[in-house]
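Quick illustration for those who missed Monday's session on complexes.
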Amino acid sequence: MKPLGPIPEGFDARDGELTIAGRSASELAAAAGDTPLFVYSRDLIAARVARLRTAMPARLSIHYAVKANPYPPLLEFIRDLVDGFDIASAGELGFVEQAGVAWDRISFAGPGKREWELEMAIRSGVAINLESLAEARRALATGDALGTAPRLAVRVNPDFDLRGSGMKMGGGAKPFGIDIEKVPEVLDLIFQSGAEWRGFHIFAGSQALDAAAVIEAQAKTLALAARLAEAAGRALPACNLGGGFGVPYFPGDEELDVEAVGEALGGAFAALPDSLRETEFCIELGRWLVGPAGVYLTRIVDRKESHGEVFLITDGGLHHQLAASGNFGTVVRRNYPVAIATRFGAPVEEAASVVGCLCTPLDRLADKAGFPRAEVGDLVAVFQAGAYGASASPAQFLGHGPAREMLI
Ligand SMILES: *Cc1c(COP(=O)(O)O)cnc(C)c1O
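Prediction with pyridoxal-5'-phosphate bound:
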């Protein structure tokens, strides 16, 4: 039997069923009208933000990375909990504007911004995190044409990466950010143009669970920001320290000690060099804020045995939960936290594989894991589904269409 990932905190059982914010899985499936279904809990999101606020220095702003989960009711809910929003496309700009987020709380990063996306951002006044020298020139030319001074931050490709990070985003050759040696040239362009300089954006990686690695990356980020600001002869107005706070997905993964990270950052803030004394600092988090607050519920439509192996075949799959199938940025497939929601907490009786309804062997939500014996009609819960679920999966693949979503 293969192990399953750890079930996040905050979920209970009632009469043998998983409850989410006090409502049973079958009640939620009935309320949605059908399965599969993503359920996101307001209480769990609010508790995450509150914990982070307590852990982090008061000076640090908390931004939400919209790509983790752009579900409109969730954006509206999180709008009043976080300080800022990081978007990566004009589409996401539309989502946050729809959710009533003010322009001065939005920053726009990401490679390959098109002309009309830059124009839309400059018109709305959102800060643009520049990803290349050419993009800097395009943004300045667009600002000129519009007669609007753009608000520009420089995304720096750091010369280090976040150790143990699931996805490496900094260090070495990267499509993201501007190499350190080229930063002075971009800054000169900005300073000469009369655009508003919004400082640096330095993102070194994602999905780190080791507090020491995050602390080290943040210290290096502050040192790099100070070095670049001093070379430019300017006080740094703002610095986005990136994020990279991970969540436990797999067997053996342990929760990131955000309290230790906050304490170290408080210490660093107390000893800042002159160039960073007045700087506004933020971090940008996606999965840490919303991942554990979401559950994907799918129903077993068939149960079969093949060559002695039990398959629980569900009405969901990788078209909604690509990450749980192991096909979104993982090298070795390991099991996510998965449970039989309608037999939650019941003893393990058999090894079974939970698969989806797609005709591909990739469509596996749990591989040969221990479960109570489940039958057709039972609900399966995939946890850590609040981030990179619905929006990061190929919903059109095989024509089953998207899952329902619900914020409770
Ligand atoms: C994806 C992304 C994030 C969010 O990452 P998480 O791992 O979900 O916290 C933050 N910043 C940038 C630049 C990103 O590309």
